[in-house]
Amino acid sequence: MDKENKMSDQRRQRQLQKIGRETQAEFESTRSQLQQRKDYRPEWDYFLDLLMRLFYPDALQVAVDKPVVEHLCNQAPFELFHAMGVHPARLGSGSFNVVRVSSSRLPVLMCPYLKATMGMFELHGGSRLDRLYHVVPTTCDWVVKFPEMADTVQTTCFLELPHLREDEKGQKRWLEEIYGLVRFLEHQTGRKLKRKALKASVQTFMHAWEAVGRLIELRRRRLLSGIWFMVAINSFLLDPIEIWTEHVLKLLDAIQSDSPQPLHQGLFLAGSPIVFPNFKLLNLIEAAGMDVCADDLCTSERIWPGGVCYDNSSCHGLLKTLAERYHRACICPTFADNERRFNSIFNTLEQHRIRGVVFHVLKGCHPFDIESFGLEPKLKQKGYKFLRIETDYVEEDSRNILTRLEAFSGI
Amino acid sequence: MVTNLRLLTQHVMFLVLTYGGRFGISLGSSLPCFSCPYVLGNGGTCYLMALQGNWWGLQMTWANLMSVMGLQLLTHLGVFILLVIILNKYWCGWICPFGTLQDWLTYLRRWWGIREAQFSWLTKDRLKVIKWILLAYTLLIPLLIAHAGWHYDLHLPFCRSICPAKPLMPLFIGQTRHLALDSTNTVTLVFSILSVSIAAGMLVGMFFKERFFCLFCPLLVLIHIFRNVSPVRFEKNVAGCTGCGNCHRMCPMDIRDVHEQKTDKDVISEDCLLCMTCAEACPEDEVLTIKFFKWRLFSSSRKYMTRRFTKKKVSHG
Amino acid sequence: MSIKVGIDLGSTAIKVVFLENREIVWKKVVPTIPGQAQVANDLISEGLSEIGYSPDQLDDPVVTGYGKSLVHDAGKVIDEVSANALGVFLLSDHKARTVINIGGQDVKVIRLSEAGKLIDFKMNDKCAAGTGRFFEVAGRILDTPVDDFGDLGQSSADTVNISSTCVVFAESEIVSLMAKGIERQPIIRGLHESLARRIAGLAGNHDIEDEVYLDGGSANNRGLVAAIEDELCRDVHVLPYPQFSVAYGAARSLDSMM
Question: Which candidate from C79, C82, C106 shows the least CB-CB separation from A400?
Fold first, then answer.
């Protein structure tokens, strides 16, 4: 019996090693494909190197020199972690290969992003990173069950997210959760939350937001392709904020001096998150002759739901501001009173004369799935075109998707 | 920046209205803001005094309307309405010296990092009625004195028993007389006790809550009545609003109406001071707009919001 | 007199048409095999010799279909949905407003405007249920050429319910039906109805506007057409050469009018 266990352990180890090699190859080949593009410039190497840290998380640990907190949703305010001296990071990856590490223990129709995250976690043995804890706002069903399946409940701080936020009760309850998070962090780090530190953190992130705002403007003007934008934004939080912001500013200066590229048809991309190295949909969109010039993915433009403005700089006032800013402005379909979320899409479409929306739904992502059906008639009524693409991380439906995208560009 | 312009205007008007009289400035006695007549050497006085003063002497017949007193009443009223129509709520947010005083207390509290007191939404809605009650008090008692034989000692009821500006504003000219109790007779004693206690309570309240007194101010609703005829317009493009809630959070009066409005265009609510902080904080382009006739005075924009709330970067060594 | 050439490199079959003065003067279909570029070139040579023209009378071919990226010296490449829409619109004398294309491995429902522009379309997801492959597999088990399905299906008074949409599972369902002694004709009719139901499910009522045209290789099957008409409750038209409308559309796409 013992010998059998040992054998099966060894076999498992070999399997993991094999998958590890293939995942590494996936990361590196995606990177080199990007480096071979015609619009590549050396300034991108910094961001591409950061993205490799999704596979080598120790590098992140070394770079930030602080405990790393993994959080599964932007709803937990970054500024708070930063002020407490820990580094928040979303370590989920879009690797197709790593999914099979854990897929036998998980439902087939489960969010592939979380399957990949769990797979990556298991691949690295869960302990390579000095990961103190996870912070999990209870957004969708998969996220809620994730700590249990990944066996990290002991080191997880759950934040019960109220799904109604237009009323007083929801806002109060969410603020209570944020206070709970403060207590959790204080307990874990042994430090108290200081008002000045929180204020300073808010400003650090505002500077990053300002830089990102300029990046967004560039892409609206088609001076920056959707794929490169995603590279930059996906790499947020994989390095100390200040350093990242500096590199973004350098990149901005370099691009500003360019002449405009030929105009592809511009697209708005909405729906489930897209994370490196799974740029399948972005590549297909480009192959079909279009370019994503606006999006509201929570791993892209909507990492920041907007700037932070507070009128009350007490600790309570700052926490209230952060809680509200993430809670109320979030476009995630997990909220029940989300109707105004569509307005931001319409605004962008109108302002920048974008003709259509591609809605990306990951298989098993029910909130976005149902939301796509709500959005479609509203968009079509206003005369825009709409395409729903339901897919996961596999490559086999690329042909099918490409056909649809090409037809979509012709409408 | 709008905030800087507003600060400048507030401070200039504070000086003009508190000390202007010493330099020969007089903006009249029909001002729609709390420029207290008990501050000697003021540059203009609050209409509420005229309102209380005019009515009680009048016997309300057509003949008397054409008398000096009647004409005075009509003139005051006419000028008041004109001023209200032209500037509407800007009197509250940009000119009122008592409002400026409240803002100073708020800056002090913020500097010390003390958190603001908060009312629940229900409480805040319930408090709204007090403004109307005080307005009724201000209007009815003088009328009752004039026509129902109520005692003259009750004259100027609002100024002498309620208004916190009467004890507090004269302090700016070194006048502490109004902090004392007046024991001439029972009525004056009661009035002065009320006046001083309310002022003390207001002081505490104004420190812990932004623009606390404005929640109870009868002049606010008097001005609000004329909002539809004023060329000053505060409008929202509901199709552009993404529900971020910044306007609600930044509002000194904690107004929810701007955030919650999903159908109509006009969003000047009863409590609004037209401080325009909500429009500054709005991250969407051209959703909140303040207009004067057809001219756009200010419209929200993302760039402005980012610039306004990002402090200049301090480079670390 | 120049000849326009349209090449449709489909997943199951390769179609080539020659057009002269907007009329089809030569056409041919062969099954898809590796080396599609070569197959297409061979077909063109074959066509030239059959109608007696020389290569320099040919315009550059317009290529469409799944394999379009494999042909390097094409004059123009156009996506198959647009080609399909254009082809059916022109061949139907501008009457078509909806096109249902049952291809080898996909099903598309295409909507056209009055001017023949592509307004919207729907396509099956990964699963190939309801495509030409369905009949191919069924034909093998029933030992019947797919071309005979039309007559056989219509000649049957009875029908059976084929519940599986999945091609692979339908296979075993047909085998068990045959083991029960059920004849080919009702089974084939059941297959037609199953396919029609699948298409009706994909299309939805508000996505269909008259006049509706059925397209693709399977459109020659009258039994299938009847079943679809029954399911959609409206008339379904079929063009004379339904398998070639995509290639036709490709060839006509260079016309300056469109």
Answer: C106
- Residue A7, domain member (yes or no): no
DSSP line for B30-84: -BSS---TTSTT-SS-BHHHHHHHHHHH----HHHHTSHHHHHHHHHHHHHHHHH
B245/A328 CB distance under 8 A: yes
For residue C123, the chain A residues in CB contact (below 8 A) are 400, 403-404, 407
Task: pLDDT tens for chain B, 317 residues: list them.
Answer: 899 999 999 999 999 999 998 898 888 888 999 998 888 888 889 998 888 877 655 555 666 667 777 787 788 889 999 999 999 999 999 999 999 999 999 999 988 888 888 889 999 999 999 999 999 998 888 878 777 777 777 888 888 889 999 999 999 988 888 888 888 888 888 888 999 999 999 999 999 999 999 999 999 999 999 988 999 999 999 988 988 889 999 999 999 999 999 999 999 999 999 999 999 999 888 999 999 998 999 999 988 998 888 876 654 43
Q: Is the pTM of this model over 0.90?
A: no
- What are the structural domains, with CATH classification, of chain C? 1-92+240-258 (3.30.420.40), 126-208+216-238 (3.30.420.40)
Tell me, yes or no, whether A3 lies in a domain. Answer: no
Which of A169, A241, A301, A309 to mutate to probe the B interface, most B CBs <10 Å?
Answer: A309
Question: Does residue A244 contact residue A282 with C-beta atoms inside 8 Å?
Answer: no
A342 part of a folded domain: yes
Q: How many whole angstroms separate alpha carbon C27 and alpha carbon C17?
A: 4
Number of domains in chain A: 1
Indicate if the alpha-carbon torsion angle B80, B86, B91, B92 is positive or negative. positive
